[in-house]
Fold this protein.
Amino acid sequence: MTNATVLRCESCGATYGDDLPNATCPACDGLLLAEHAPPAVRGKELRSLFDSRLAPGASNSSGAAKNSGASGVAAAHARSGVWRFRELVLHVADDAIISHPEGNTPLITRPAISAYAGVDDVIIKHEGHNPTGSFKDRGMTVALTQARRVKARAVACASTGNTSASLSAYAAQAGIPSFVFVPAGQISAGKLAQTIAYGARVLPIDCDFDDCLRLAREASTLGIYLVNSVNPFRLEGQKTIVFELLQQLGWHPPDWIALPAGNLGNTSAFGKALREARELGLIDRVPRLLAVQAAGAAPFAKAFGEGFVTRHKVRAETRATAIRIGDPASWDRAVTAIRETSGHVVAVSDEEIFAAKAVVDHAGVGCEPASAASIAGVRKLAAAGEIGRNERVAAILTGHLLKDPGTTTESQLPAPLSYGAAMDILRRAT
Ligand code: F0G
């Protein structure tokens, strides 16, 4: 299509153009990796190009927008934290982009969270500030842009809730019918409500996420475009969490980047982003990745402890439903990401996740349970001496507190009180 992007199968090595209507390799169903033509500039000049787009009213472009003829369309890269990095994401004309916009999420520091983690300098990047409340929007803006480019008749995904909410919103904007497969009874009410409200057709299946993903992959043989994180364009969008973080830190990389890990799409995207940032001279040193799994859904952490000699599968169980995944799809890519960054993988119990969540919540920041795994993982590695107290840690909070309010209200809402009893409590407390 543009010849600027090639899709390479990581299993059989076949290559395809960026107009491929399949999300996985048509020859062997392996996972495809997007490889872009290198940008015209690198290093300091590339940093300056990205920085210039943050200026108010910026419309500087690498050429795609100029050629699009979309004079009335405000430059997507000036507003979106994904398309600001378009040279490293997808070469596409401005008026072809399906953008909310998304990204531009804040960095937050709170002494209480650093103290709890046991590291002086913890920087939180809160991806819950995306339009549908999770980091998935960064991948979905690219996947739906691509879905429309390849003229997909319909799009589908399997989901633990956030992907489906994001898919539903972006598919609505793109005007493409969408289907989602969710494990029945295992999705938080907030995420399900979003998915239904934005208009996706929800198919609750009597199985777990891993089976739902198998079903979604089979559905793609019917010509439905799959937008799970096995879709290479999802990863291209999610890389921008790292690019934006680095840019916000003045291109001075932290020592660690911690993130929750389920299906391992995000871990893979982070690894690719760091590899590219290093190769293009955006940074001169690569932070270490810390992928954190819930103990009841930790096949990757188990394998890490054994030097990644075996690919494990488990029947997943955790109250952090977003990461209740036992057979992660992006396994090999994530192994590469951990190896290339001298990274670490750790498992934390539900108790540790919810204790960390309470600290994040009480700091006035808030996050959904799975997100708090980042903080719980940092605390665990700091206590073990693996992360030094003086190291700088960026912890990704992947989803908003309101994604899963049930976990808080079920455990912490008191029984209804009488008027008098409420006054008594206030008198005693003040
Ligand atoms: N955090 C949240 C809030 C998530 O929703 C997910 C994944 C992850 C972390 C893990 O990311 O799968 O790339 O390793 N949620 C997917 C979904 C599976 O369907 O919403 P991962």
User: Anything to note?
Assistant: The first strand starts at residue 5 and ends at 9.
